[in-house]
Amino acid sequence: MKTLCSVSTLARIFALSVLLALGQPAQAQTDPLPSWNDGPAKKAIVEFVQVTTTPGSTKFVPPAERIATFDQDGTLWVEHPMYSQVMYILESVPALVKAKPELAKVAPFSTVLEILKGDRAAIAKLTLPDLEKLAAATLTGMPVQTFEAEAKKWLAEAKDPRWKKPYTELTYLPMQEVLKYLRASGYKTWIVTGGGQDFVRQYSDKVYGIPPEQVIGTAGGTKYGYAKDGKPYLTKEPRLLLNDNNAGKPEGIHLMIGRRPTMAVGNSTGDQQMLEYTQAGDGARLAMLVLHDDARREYAYGPAQGLPATKVGAFTQALYDEAKKQGWTVISMKDDWKKIFTFE
Amino acid sequence: MKTLCSVSTLARIFALSVLLALGQPAQAQTDPLPSWNDGPAKKAIVEFVQVTTTPGSTKFVPPAERIATFDQDGTLWVEHPMYSQVMYILESVPALVKAKPELAKVAPFSTVLEILKGDRAAIAKLTLPDLEKLAAATLTGMPVQTFEAEAKKWLAEAKDPRWKKPYTELTYLPMQEVLKYLRASGYKTWIVTGGGQDFVRQYSDKVYGIPPEQVIGTAGGTKYGYAKDGKPYLTKEPRLLLNDNNAGKPEGIHLMIGRRPTMAVGNSTGDQQMLEYTQAGDGARLAMLVLHDDARREYAYGPAQGLPATKVGAFTQALYDEAKKQGWTVISMKDDWKKIFTFE
Predict the structure, then answer these.
(1) Closest alpha carbon within chain A to B280
(2) What distance in Å separates residue A241's CA from the closest CA in chain B?
(3) Which residues of A281-316 are buried (b: 16+ CB within 10 A; e: fewer)?
(4) Which whole number is the average pLDDT over A257-283?
(5) What residue ranges in chain B does DSSP mark as E strands?
(6) CB pairs under 8 A between A and B
(7) DSSP state, residue B120
(8) Name one GO molecular function term (chains A, B) (predicted).
(9) Does residue B247 sit at the A interface (CB-CB below 8 Å)?
(10) Residue (of B72, B36, B80, B46) closest to B332 by Cα position
(11) Continuous segment of H or E residues that includes residue A264
(12) pLDDT at residue A27 in the model
């Protein structure tokens, strides 16, 4: 009988079948950070994720320990000309004055009314104690649910002065890609912000994919009580529990997470301790700072711009030198980001 | 041609094949709570999980909102004759006195030394202010890492006075099954304890499958600083941020989670506000209390036993009446639990 196939032909058919079964040569991996230019920053992120998540790697990090913390203002979204939450505080003053008309002539409420009328120079009159007084007046004394509804309403309506968009659209697309890439690699992403915890929790899930329980911010106490119908509710109190700036960041991280981050990203002196604390751990750690050096597409403020530290926390020359000394990766918005905003 | 089968025979064979293809009558679903006797408590848990997780259910709870909070002492593990962390505090006094011998004659340290010598009556001498002083002395003033190592060491070596086992083995098997069942159903399980947050975080993952970031406890501030080699570290301060008992529980939940639980379990008056707060939400909510009514297998303390509230938080008659009024499920250890401890 004439055999259909010789052994060698069968062997070749078998081998070919195996190859076909194993599939095409691997497609080029989809770039998880398409808005990033090739460069040391992008490389640092991708390599960090790979070495910490590849089984057998000497720098493997067990999933439970994959914690990445992000400052928000100036790291995940725009913080100039002013923190959006400071705008919230200022824009909440008219309602306050409507309820208590005597405040209209009392500083700092009177100063704020001038600012809102267009007297931008009056901003310089506001001291830190003024801001604390305004924060206490506009962020505390009401039920939590009331605050949450007011914050949500303001966020839906307020527009930034430059691009005329809701603040929640001014997030940095390249950082959004980092958040998604980390989560897809088994990391938990946290926000660690000097901004108000209750405020940021109103949009963090929808805007960043970061749920309320993974937001650490400046936080005050609450007081438990009962409404007339017996239903319990919490009232925001002017009692500061955590000032989540500078050394407050590692303190807040210890309080709320109880683990040291493996990766931390910030942009100013207010993040220095968080980065130090992160890097002090064993094994692979990644610490990064976002440098605002792109006046055309965003804002330029940092040591190279020779701008003074005009707000709480800035990317000073000292911070830049510390970053170089400690091996923290500095991200240049100008060089590293192909696109900054989704809406460009 | 003689047909092998008539149409009716073929039909029967087809029908039989279909039945066989559909498989045997469904095996009884594996019982997720095998240590629970059938009864209203077990039923309440299973029904709650089913209605909140079955797509299409009118009481469906999206996975992100599936938060279940558990008191620890008396709910997840034994709390008699004394909270294990109080034992830790007392047993830490000798080391303190060794470092500062002058304390040996100073109350309450001298009282504790008497207690440890066997003078159990001396326990009654300790007031709440005494306990606070002892807590500050033994739980604060040291680096976080030092405290964590000391707590871990004590937990590994200490034995309870009745079963002579490590405290971490005195967890309630039926509650462990509830934790696992909830997590398998997409719930996140949290501990909300009056005990020290840093203390409980040393074993919560290994013992309960609850990671540090899902432990809320009584918590103090920390202070960031630098060691001689420049490495940063945190020191535990005697500055109370959160007293996680009574109204402190909803306050702690708001601070650390920022969501209302869908389910909460406690065992004493110290959990009342947490259960009220949980139940005040819309949709399906489950609030439960563990009643200690089994003197033979564990300890009996509660309204039916006529025992006075001898410790902070107890299952008083008032709490029992509140539970009935609010529709909270009372779990009877005697009737509902086939087995209490893994080691029985």
Answers:
(1) A231
(2) 6
(3) eeebbbbbbbbbbbeeebbbbbbeeeeebebebbbb
(4) 97
(5) 67-70, 188-196, 215-226, 232-242, 263-266, 286-293, 300-301, 329-332
(6) 85
(7) G
(8) hydrolase activity
(9) yes
(10) B36
(11) strand A263-266
(12) 44
Count CB-CB contacts under 10 A for residue B167: 21
Q: Is A255–B241 a contact, with Cβ atoms under 8 angstroms apart? A: yes
Nearest residue in chain B measured CA to CA from A233: B277
Residue B85 has a CB neighbour count (10 Å cut-off) of: 25
Q: Is A234 on the interface with B (CB under 8 A)?
A: yes
> Using CA atoms, how far apart are residues B126 and A211, in angstroms rounded to an integer?
43
Interchain proximity A258–B198, CB inside 8 Å: yes
User: Closest approach of chain A CAs to the CA of B260, in angstroms?
Assistant: 11
Q: Who's near B324: CB < 8 A, 6+ residues apart?
A: B330
pLDDT at A309: 46
Supply the mean pLDDT for chain B: 91
pLDDT in tens, A66-82: 999 999 999 999 999 88
In DSSP terms, B264 is beta-bridged to B69, B287
Q: How confident is the model at residue B33 (pLDDT cuts 50, 70, 90)?
A: very high
Q: Which two tokens stand for residue B291?
A: 């009643």
CB-based contact (8 Å) between B221 and chain A?
yes
Report the pLDDT value the prediction gives residue A302, as an integer from 0 to 100.
Answer: 78
Q: Choose from A201, A256, A325 for mutation: most chain B CBs within 10 A.
A: A256
Q: Indicate whether B309 pLDDT > 60.
A: no
Mean pLDDT to the nearest integer, B178-187:
98
The 3-state DSSP composition of chain B as helix, strand, coil percent (nearest 5) reads 45, 15, 35
What residues have CB less than 8 Å from A276, skipping those under 6 apart? A250, A326, B232
**Structural Rg of chain A based on CA atoms:** 25
Please write the tens of the pLDDT for every residue from A290-326.
Answer: 999 999 999 998 776 555 544 445 888 899 999 999 9
Contacts of A176 (CB under 8 A, 6+ apart): A76, A208, A342
Q: Which of residues 274-303 of B touch A (CB under 8 A)?
A: 276-277, 280
Helix (H, G, I), strand (E, B) or coil at A159: coil
B119 vs B36, B80, B111, B114, B313, CA distance in Å? Answer: 39, 18, 9, 6, 25
pLDDT value of position B344? 84
For the domain made up of A40-81+163-336, give the CATH fold. Answer: Rossmann fold (3.40.50)
* Cis ω for the linkage preceding B81 (within 30 of 0): yes
Q: Does A62 touch chain B (CB under 8 A)?
A: no
Chain B contact for A257 (CB, 8 A cutoff) = yes
Q: What pairs with residue A206 in β-bridges?
A: none
Confirm or reject contact between A222 and chain B (CB < 8 A): yes
Residue of A nearest to B225 (CA): A247
Question: How close does chain A come to B15, measured CA to CA in Å?
Answer: 37
Distance from CA of B255 to the nearest CA of A (A): 7
The CA distance from B251 to the nearest CA of chain A, in Å, is 6
Cα A223 to chain centroid distance, Å, stands at 28
Q: Would an 8 Å CB–CB cutoff place B254 in contact with chain A? A: yes
Contacts with A224 from chain B: Cβ below 8 Å = 247, 250-251, 273, 277
Q: Cβ of A64 under 8 Å from any chain B Cβ?
A: yes
* Domain locations along chain B: 40-81+163-336, 84-157
Question: Minimal Cα distance from B235: which residue of A?
Answer: A251
Taking the model in full, what pTM does it have? 0.90
